[in-house]
User: Which sequence fits this backbone?
């Protein structure tokens, strides 16, 4: 069997950031204003603080501004929605990101749904999800978009293939399943109640692991030549697939780290710049 191909998300992210920086310059030249991505952080979850900082650094690299809005961990749903509504009305803000997860007292989906669709660059509004599912123009959830971008860039055939998605979260498992379906894959979604999971995974030409459990997918579950997409990121830089054992059986795989993660942030940048282009030019300039 041939050596598996590494689906290098880090290299693709670097290439896309350079292209996005050029597109941002054109928007600024046209409007005289720098597009803004507003990130809302509620509380002080250490992982969330790190993610917001990484997104701010990515904004600098592509030449747009990052506005960090930090709120107390005691913030109510109503208070958070008022902050979102103010950002919706701010003409400089092209994208709004509410960092997930929020404290337990907040109705997260109600807050996601308060984000204006034209600024929902993380694809978390249920209306964005519905439009994406129907193959209409909509911003997509960032990690699912990053997965599809990697598969497309590296020429992974999707149409007619059997894809198994392990995980059904509203911002990862469900939307990536819909995107694969729209790309003409035959899709099975697996979750904590799925019976005979190893047998189902063994059918897959494409495996997307998004379950949040380190090395959950075992090598013996993977058929020879499958494409492995590991969307997990657990402590110690460990993914949801036992890549050390499973990757040699695959035809291609995303490494952890350096696979889906870097592209998720770029997908957020990409959709923020698309939003800015729509405002500046009336169309996306890809």
Assistant:
């Amino acid at each position: 069997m041939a050596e598996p191909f590494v689906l290098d998300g880090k290299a693709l992210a670097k290439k896309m950031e350079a292209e996005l920086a050029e597109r941002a310059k054109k928007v600024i030249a046209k409007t005289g204003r720098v597009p803004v991505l507003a990130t809302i952080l509620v509380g002080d979850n250490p992982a969330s603080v790190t993610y917001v900082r990484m997104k701010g650094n990515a904004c600098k690299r592509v030449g747009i501004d990052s506005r960090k809005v930090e709120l107390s961990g005691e913030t109510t749903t109503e208070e958070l929605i008022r902050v979102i509504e103010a950002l919706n009305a701010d003409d400089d803000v092209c994208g709004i990101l509410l960092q997930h997860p929020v404290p337990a007292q907040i109705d997260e989906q109600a807050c996601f749904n308060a984000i204006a669709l034209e600024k929902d660059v993380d694809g978390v509004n249920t209306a964005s999800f519905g439009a994406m599912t129907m193959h209409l123009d909509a911003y997509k959830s960032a990690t699912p978009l990053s997965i599809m971008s990697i598969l497309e860039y590296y020429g992974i055939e999707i149409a007619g293939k059997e894809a198994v998605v392990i995980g059904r979260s509203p911002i990862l498992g469900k939307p990536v399943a819909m995107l694969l379906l729209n790309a003409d894959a035959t899709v099975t979604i697996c979750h904590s109640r799925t019976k005979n999971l190893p047998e189902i995974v063994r059918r897959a030409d494409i495996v997307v692991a998004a379950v949040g459990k380190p090395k959950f997918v075992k090598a013996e579950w993977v058929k020879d030549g499958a494409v492995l997409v590991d969307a997990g990121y657990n402590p110690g830089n460990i993914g949801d697939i036992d890549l050390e054992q499973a990757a040699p059986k695959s035809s291609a795989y995303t490494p952890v780290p350096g696979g889906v993660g870097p592209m998720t942030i770029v997908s957020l940048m990409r959709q923020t710049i698309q939003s800015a282009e729509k405002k500046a030019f009336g169309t996306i300039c890809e």
About this structure: The chain has a mean pLDDT of 96.
